[in-house]
## 1
Amino acid sequence: MLASIASFLYPVLKFLNPPLITEAAVNEVVAGKVQDLKPNSGKIIKFGNKPALLVRVSDTEWKAFSAVCTHLNCTVQYRDSTEQIWCACHNGTYDLNGKVVSGPPPNPLTEYAVNVRGDEVIISRRA
Amino acid sequence: MTAKAIQWLDDRLGLSAIRELMDHKTVPVHSATRWYYFGGITLFLFGIQMVTGILLLFYYRPTVAEGFDSVRFIMTRVEFGWLIRSIHSWSANLLIFVAFVHMFSVVLTHAYRPPRELTWASGIVLLGLMLGFGFSGYLLPWNQISYFATKVGTDVAAGTPGIGPSIARILRGGEDVGAPTLTRFFALHVMVLPLITVGLIAFHILLVQKNGMSTPPWIAASRVRHLKFFPNFLLREVMVWYGALAVLGVLAAIFPWELGEKADPFASAPKGIRPEWYFLAQFYTLKLIPSHVWIFEGELLGVAGFGVLAVGWALLPVWGVNRAGEARTRLVTGVAIVLIAYLAAFTLLGYIK
Ligand code: HEM
Ligand code: FES
């Protein structure tokens, strides 16, 4: 009896569990042109299938982070007024090193490396 | 002729048994009788959801590419589309509000005491299903707000110790909220939840029919009059339904439901993001809990707290009743008032902050 119920339920549960889609791990993306982003501003770019946040701190200083808030997954944004990274969902803030300044996020944002080659900005996972 | 037809049907269906049942069903009349209407209003609004939901299905398309545009099409091009969609959305909200009123009225009149434990339990599950309807339906228009609300909501589920990550994966149909999530939420919203709900509503009402209406413990049985359900109470109930329908019509006409902007997974969460009001109390609580409390992650603590609270509440007929089967009225009323105050205050705070 139990065994037969289990034999019905098992395939159903397995069916509901989505198959893993293995995507080629992205390690580097071209985030755009240098002149597209003004100093003291940020933008969201695609890093594989996740959003990343690229911040142009000043003319020459760039920063990049995973844009996925460590609290509950929302996509963060750069605020030029406070020069901090802000999450609208529950008012979490991070500084420009990805560290939590205030609000509920438990962990810092993952930081990526930024390299400027010619007029292209390139973001890559840190080793 | 009609007499003959009725006789013919009666011979085949046994109508007289039903007539007998109808004749005997009564409703006690006393100072708290008005609260008996709220279950009926909830039922009526669920009927509205069925009808308007099925109508929406004729145009809605459950894909990331077309979902948002199909709802916009309903709102702008289909005749009375704005009305049908607005009624579906408003009625969903009203339904949940009325279901909460119904639940708390049951608590404050102590109707959960034996022999109505199963009525209470099925009611709790129904309320959970209604919240499930609200959560899954919210995503269907695939706009910015609902997209991020679903990200947060499913991530809260992922925080459940142990099985959380699997639950979140099954809900999302992958690692993140995206096209597979919409397909799944659609299946849940229009097929799985309605089927379960209809069955459970039947069970709930069957139990009400079987056990009759309870009278609050402080009202002496000798002082209670009885009103026949058919047709007297039913007619009054229908009047109340008309009232509810009028409220719905006015709300939908004056405040058509907004559509917002199409969801963009590569945009930052917009300012002013918040879930539907019936999740605001939890939302605001999560916002208040600091990231770390002692050695625990704040979020985990919040989620665990809600879980314990919900289970405790579902078990009300266990701790709210003494050995003799009488309601512990003071205890239960006290707990209910604290809970109502918490929900009201935090919903309000979540709204204005
Ligand atoms: C058999 C029953 C139902 C069917 C077939 C149905 C169908 C649908 C469909 C097709 C949509 C997408 C169109 C749209 O977004 O406007 C939708 C949206 C929605 N539904 Fe339902 N529904 C049903 C019951 C319910 C119930 C019982 C509730 C609430 C307790 C509910 C709450 C919602 C909500 C909140 C939305 C989003 C509204 C919006 O923003 O457009 N539905 N439903
Ligand atoms: S998801 Fe970012 S603060 Fe909650």
Note: Chain B touches chain A at residues 148, 151-152, 154-156, 166, 169-170, 172-174, 176, 180, 265-273, 283, 286-287, 289-292, 297-299 (CB under 8 Å).
## 2
Amino acid sequence: MKKLYLILICGWFLYPPMLSHASLIEEKKCASCHRLTKKENEKKGPDLFYAGNKFKSPWLEKYLQNPVTLRKAGTIHNPGFLKGERENNHPSLSKEDAGKITQELMQMTLPDLPVEELPDPLNKGQKAKTKYEFERTFSCISCHQSLNLAGKPRGGISGPSLVDAGNRLQANWVAVWLKNPKTFSEKSRMPVYKMDDETRLRFTRFIMTLKNEGIR
Amino acid sequence: MRAFDKLMSKISLLSVFKYAILITAIGVSGCGEKQAEKPPPPPLKTESPPPLSLKEEVSPVIVTAKTRETYQWYCAQCHGIKGKGDGINAKFLTVPPRNHTKAEYLETRTDEQLFQAIKFGGLSVGRAPCMPAWGNTLSDSTIHELVRYIRELCQCEAL
């Protein structure tokens, strides 16, 4: 009997917040394409259980109303991925729904995510050096679109486009991803890099400079 | 008769005693040795290692379903599903991914060079930097298997 009370009390504490976070996400059936917990099997769409760590909320809100293509071949678990067959398009939501879902998504975070201390924004020389390494030392551009010095998008398509990464992603998420992608995803098609911290944080800064505003 | 009976019973008692000691001794030593030195397995063990090591000498690296899966997961995004250099990134790269079915070129490369290219990236063997380094992602033995798999794709060996 004591146990039953305990379960009821625990349930009362845990249940309401979960329900309120998941409500519109549930209603819109986001879980049919996205993982909302790490325990589920991989799904076609990008994982959302750490959305609050990964995305910048203004970008998310805009994306949900007007979904732009970030992965021209679809996501890595899309069956047509290796043939470049992107399947379904993301539904677009009303301004109101997009705002609500963004709020819900921003609540979805991982516990104990490390907080990285970023260096100052890069000066011109550091930026040029990092760009060189982005293309030559680490071959990032082979799979990720980014902007060349003339402000033109270029690069491979198997990884998500980084052309607007500075508006889309949180710097801390980028830094942790570069250190240990397995924090978020057990299986990625990206090579694992063992960058020293200086390089890794400089790369994070560099990626954060990539923005649509830079397209010329 | 009585004397004989007494003798017999003494002998049988003694032998029962002896057997008892023997059985317990075997029992105890059997358990102990099984854990420590494993007496029964040795004949098996001495028989099985030779064929194993012989096998290793003949074909040290074997392409398995896992090797092909690894190639599809990581390499095919550039080198293509069939290794023809036509993966989804191919047309966006400044240097096209190597066609792994082309014997004319791959004959000119040693297994060691292919291994280096995969482990340390294209630049490490004087090739284009668009070919990433996989040394932190894949183990050496997986990379050796991938080299074998590429040899299977080109149906060629180093000249």
Note: Chain B touches chain A at residues 72-74, 76-78, 81, 87-89, 92-93, 121-123, 129-134, 136-137 (CB under 8 Å).
